[in-house]
Structure formats: structure tokens, C-alpha cells
Design goal:
This protein has nine helices and two strands, in the order H-H-H-H-H-H-H-H-E-E-H. By secondary structure, the protein is mainly alpha-helical. It has a two-stranded antiparallel ribbon with strand order 1-2. This is C2H2 finger domain-containing protein.
């Protein structure tokens, strides 16, 4: 546990250092150069290749970058087409980031079993992860985050984010820490709360915590 704590702290420290380095290297002049290059049809300046390993771009992220970095068209119709493509790419990327946006019928208050929405194909990793988030007894403690698994249902099986979203935590306690830090702490007044894998609207944070414990065995 001590080693895991030290490793987590070191990762957070390196993340802060990298973020500050990116901020320090960015200048107002660079933004002007990028805009002028785009207007001239040159595109953005290629960054020097370094040996630092980075994660490959996911499909929605790659589409977003390509749409925003597309050269300007020579006609008004081309400009409109470029704008529309960029808007569509942004919408697609926001859907991935915010999780499931498909709305189905509200679950009946008399229902004893939640209705699964957007169920993945048989034998897919998403389906295995999905079924593992439901408990059979009050003492069951799954090790997958039902909110993250719900986000994975919106992605294709070959998306690199799926493996991260459906991963099992080392202990149920680690899952509880993730749930509080990643999801509960980010809720704001007026946010719409919904369990995407149950297609169930939740009224407030305490409703979410109660649902997480009763249906998905996640202690918070």
C-alpha cells in the first residue's frame, strides 16, 4: 500500500511538472503563427519528435484534431463545409467525454430490476464488465466502476479508452476512492445525474450514492 501511494504521488507530481512545462513553452506569438499558417494554407507547425512515449489518439480525438487543423477552403462553400465538419467533430468528442447521451424511457418506479440500455454484443469485454457491476447480495463488492463502464458502452471495442474504463480495481476500497474522487467530487449544483447502464435518472448526490450501494455494491 505504501508503494502504491508513493507511485500515485509520483505520477501526480510528474503530471503537474509536464502541465507547467507546456504552459511555459506556449506563447502568444505561437498562437498568431498558427492562425497565420492556417490562413495561408500551410497548417500548423510540426512539433519536433521526442522520445517521450505518448498514448495514441483515440478515434474521436483524432477526428477532432484533424477537423480543427484542416486548412481553410478557397470558396465560401468550402468554408461552410469545414465549419460544419469541425462542429460535428466537437459534438462527437463531447459525447465520448460526457458519457452516454442516448435517452430512453424512464424506468418505472415499480420495477424491481433496472433496464439495461445500449447493451454491448455477446462475449465483448464491455458486456463482461457491464454484468460484473451488478450485485446479487448486499455483501457483494464489485471492483469495476459502473459509471466508467457506462461510458465504455458508447465506444467501439477497438477504442483504446475501453480498456481503461472497464478495468478492475485492485480492491473494492480502491474503487470507493476512485468513485468519490473522480465522480462524487465533480458533481455541481444543477448537474443532471443519471446511471447510464440502468437508464435511471437520479435526483441528487445522496440518491446516486444510495443507488451505487444497493445496485452496484459501490461503497462511498
Amino acid at each position: 500500500m505504501e508503494l502504491r501511494r508513493r507511485l500515485r504521488n509520483e505520477k501526480q507530481r510528474l503530471k503537474r511538472v509536464l502541465k507547467q512545462k507546456i504552459r511555459d513553452e506556449w506563447t502568444a506569438r505561437q498562437a498568431v503563427d498558427d492562425i497565420e499558417g492556417q490562413l495561408q494554407g500551410i497548417g500548423f507547425v510540426k512539433q519536433a519528435t521526442v522520445n517521450t512515449p505518448i498514448c495514441p489518439q483515440r478515434p474521436a480525438q483524432k477526428r477532432l484534431v484533424e477537423a480543427l487543423a484542416a486548412p481553410l477552403g478557397n470558396t465560401l462553400e468550402g468554408q461552410y463545409r469545414r465549419r460544419d465538419n469541425a462542429i460535428a467533430a466537437i459534438v462527437a468528442y463531447c459525447m465520448v467525454e460526457e458519457g452516454q447521451t442516448i435517452r430512453g424511457a424512464r424506468a418505472s418506479v415499480d420495477s424491481t430490476r433496472p433496464t439495461l440500455m445500449n447493451e454491448p454484443p455477446i462475449n465483448s469485454p464491455q458486456l463482461t464488465a457491464l454484468m460484473s457491476t451488478f450485485i446479487k447480495t448486499v455483501t457483494d463488492r464489485p471492483r469495476r466502476c459502473f459509471i466508467c463502464v457506462g461510458k465504455a458502452l458508447d465506444l467501439t471495442s477497438d477504442d483504446g479508452a475501453v480498456e481503461v474504463l472497464i478495468r478492475e480495481f485492485y480492491t473494492p476500497g480502491d474503487l470507493s476512492k476512485h468513485f468519490r474522487r473522480k465522480h462524487l467530487s465533480n458533481l455541481r449544483e444543477g448537474d443532471e445525474i443519471r446511471c447510464s447502464i440502468c437508464d435511471l435518472p437520479l435526483d441528487h448526490m445522496e440518491h446516486l450514492r444510495n443507488h451505487a450501494l444497493r445496485i452496484h455494491g459501490t461503497v462511498s
